[in-house]
Amino acid sequence: MCPTAPGRGGADHFSDAAAVALSSGGTDHVLRNVLSGTTAGVAILDPQLRYLYVNPAFARTIGVPATSLLGRTINEVLPGIESRSDVLEQVLLDGLPREATTTGVTHTDASGAPGQRRWWHGAYHRLEIGGEVFGIAGIVVEVTASQEQQRALEQAQARLTLLDAAATRIGTTLDMDTTSGELAEFLVPLLGDVATVEVFPEETGQVRGVTASGGLRLRRSALASLPELREATRQLGLTGEYVDYPAGSAVPRCLATERPIMRNLQSEEELTQWVASPERLAAYRAVGIHSTLVVPLAARGHTIGTVSLARAGDSPAFTDEDVVNTQDLSGRAAITIDNARRYTRSQGIALELQRALLAEPGSPHPNVELASRYLPSGSSALVGGDWFETVRLPFGRTLLVMGDVMGHGVEAAVDMSNYRSMIRYVSASDLPPHRILRQLDTNISEGETGRPATCLLALVDPARGICSYSSAGHLPPAVLGADGRPQLVEVPPGPPLGTGFGGYDMVTREFGTGEVLILYTDGLVERRDEDIDRSLARLTRLRLPVAGTLDALLDQVLRHLTDRVAEDDVAVLAARVRPPSAAGPGAASRAAPGPPGPGPGGAPGAPGGGS
Hints:
Strand order of the largest sheet: 8-7-6-11-10-9
Low-confidence stretches: 1-15, 588-592, 596-607
Radius of gyration: 37 Å
Oligomer: single chain
Structural class: alpha+beta
Distance between the termini: 86 Å
Helix content: 25-40%
Mean pLDDT: 80
């Protein structure tokens, strides 16, 4: 029977008596008379949690003389004891009594034998008189347990420690293979000599990985082994490969029953049934595997794959405790792997959608040469909403568009598509750039789901040698002259599209044959650790090959400005007016006559009206 925990009434009475004793300065004398005969361990600690008094029962309980306790904390006396300092500090803080259970290995047990793990239940009360806190009083009784109970408690404690360690090492990224690799590396050598993580493939088009012969196909997302076994385990296959398991073998049976399967000291017949093929059987023999364990990876009510462990050589066979630990670790890791799997799927959809939309921008007039690039982020951020477009307008003019929808993921890519469609529609009205932005802002802000976006318009008019610009919060364009040095064009930045504020201006600048216009999104230049002016300065310091192809020029831009993993998506567009002889037959006639007057942007170099 476990002793009953100390009652509140007795504890409160003792606390009051102890407080009076402390305040009167007669601590040792009063407490010795009152408490030396009780079988419960009693201790008084000061506000720094140092022992002021312990009765004989308390000293006997932990096997340390009272003289070795006074003036010291329990962690100083017995570092192996699990301290309840967090509980005691809360009692000191708010004055509410608390109870807690403590365990540890003391110097002796009740019979004098050393090194026994024991458990105690204690009640702790704050000591105060007249609002002044003197310390804490604790009454502790030992909780006895059978050897089986002690063993179970020790196993539970070890399991929690294991899971805590796994939480810091597994799931550091949202990449499924990386997460699987972290799980496999954690399991070796902790629970096995070889560990593999295999998941259902998504790209095969099969139902849960079922092969044509009725077997099971999984994709190996991770493989780890002891250093001395790495050469031999290469025969088991590589990460990224597909593994076909015949019906009735261990892995399909594990997934069908959703229960672990353990085989120790396997016979030749058992080993043959366990592995997937004769080649793999030979590999098992080469490694010296004698014990195997397969547990399912399950998350959110469905299985996503398996974790397989093997032991070889002199390693002991698997135990039931190994099975439980592997299940616990796999269960925790499965959630992280499934999160990474879902993220990868969403990222892939967004990326394919964005690439598909950017792969077919509108065709400019033959008098304008174009080149473009799109680079997805190399970080953990989801695909963004970077986009560009070109629209052919009357009189040989071409509208160039560069935009960046705020946010990431599939939703941003869908909104990007909406912006592209809308700008084609609005541009058909042949409005000047600043009025196009005003119309776009009105249309988006009146909707319910459209995300704000920055946008830059550049209306290239080769017949007049000018380009008109208007910006909705976007970074300024750059123009390269004959020296190949980018010069930023100052364009008044209006508010992002979709805010409903309006207020966009237009400026018109000369843009002649041989010059190159570069439009880009912030991922090309911005860095989180520097001011935007410094980022733009890096662009203007470049010297680029203006006379070569625009594709070669963009390759140079990306090589110099994206020399490390991009923190955001990058979209960049380069445009150049072709000489009349290179614009193709009929280009001159298609480019003239132009619109009346100086053009929609006003005279070269003059700002357009606000809108």
